[in-house]
Amino acid sequence: MGVPLVDLSGWFDGTGRAEVAARVDAALKESGFLLVTGHGVPAELRDRTRELTRRFFALPTERKQPYAVRTGGRGWLPPDVQATGRADGAMAPPDLKETLTFGSDAGGDDPFFFRPNVFPAEVPELEPVVTDYLRRMRELADELLTIFAVALGEPEDMFTRHTRTPSYNMNVNHYPALEQVGPAGPGQFRIGEHTDFGTVTILDRQHGVGGLQVRTKDGVWEDAPFDPDAFTINIGDLMARWVSDRWRSTPHRVLPPDASAPDEDLVSLIFFYNTDTDARIVSLDGRYPEVGGGDYLKAKLEAISIG
User: Residue limits of the Fe2OG dioxygenase domain (predicted)?
Assistant: First the structure.
């Protein structure tokens, strides 16, 4: 299968827009995943976001508990509150992770998707850094959606006309070391097998033994390639539905901590981009019935929440 690397520089400077769109189209058809460089997001911002969130994760549980929320909230998702592998109805065990979650906090009326972000008082520097990161992720996500439209030969705003006041969220996932959480239970992963739910996902990850795997068309699990300068990009179920399965919403998972690296401790920054909550999504060839962007996403999120 292969997860290709695409340099977006030619898109942004105007020297290779058609070539970039064609390469993205090919990657999404074959893999559903790609790596992108030339995205314009400073490495310093990515590193600083990870550094500051690590400060929070290092706090004792009793200091984090006041920020505890459930799926869809803004704050700290403790261990054992999400089982991502249950999205399609399987009885998967809880994920081996904890999460700080932020997201869309203004612009829409649905309180499920638009809530005030919560920034831990213990890390006062975090708010401006995360606010800047979210802004840049939204800009990059809209640019990717524009590339997608060009790849289809459609008007450039085919997708972004439905992201005027979108919902989105960023999960900062902490995958603790084996020496902290102990061996995984049967069928347990840092994140269980799943597909993403929305339009496009932008992942900034750390490389590790217990890292990201992607399932090929043949059903084989492969380690995703890593480039420290690149974002990992994939589409979600709503986008695959929108383009009538031209592109793959690909199953993926994050492996459990491995005995060969007992002190491996990773943090991933995962930005999930959706549509306006009242958007009506119609597949290109009509093979799927029309759905509401907000309703579709809410049902998916409720499926993975424990309790």
Answer: 165-275
Range of the domain at 291: 5-304
Q: How many CB atoms lie within 10 A of CB 183?
A: 11
191 phi, psi to nearest 5 deg: -140, 125
- Interval 66-112: pLDDT, tens: 999 988 899 999 998 888 877 666 678 899 999 999 999 988 889 99
Two tokens at 182?
């102990």
**DSSP annotation string for 84-148:** GGGTTS--PPPPS-EEEEEE--SS-S-TTT-------TT-TTHHHHHHHHHHHHHHHHHHHHHHH
Scanning 152-206, the segments in alpha helix (DSSP H) are 178-181
What burial class does residue 130 get, using C-beta atoms within 10 Å of its C-beta: 0-12 exposed, 13-18 middle, 19+ buried?
Answer: buried
Taking the C-alpha atoms of residue 102 and residue 196, their distance in angstroms, rounded to an integer, is 17
Q: Is residue 48 within a helix (H) or strand (E), and if so which, with residue range?
A: helix 43-57
Number of domains in the chain: 1
Helices 43-57 and 126-151 sit at what angle, rounded to 10 degrees? 130
At residue 117, the pLDDT reads: 97
H/E run at residue 29? helix 17-30
Amino acid at 290: E
- The pLDDT of residue 71: 85
**Token couple for 75:** 């704050």
Task: Enter the pTM of the model.
Answer: 0.96
Read off the CATH number of the domain in which 166 is found: 2.60.120.330
Residue 1 clears pLDDT 60, i.e. is over it: no
- List of residues 6+ apart from 193 with CB closer than 8 A: 84, 85, 92, 215, 251, 252, 253
Burial class (CB in 10 A: 0-12, 13-18, 19+), 246: middle
Bridge pairing between strands 231-235 and 191-194: unpaired
Q: What secondary structure letter does DSSP report for 51?
A: H
Structure tokens, 291: 């759905």
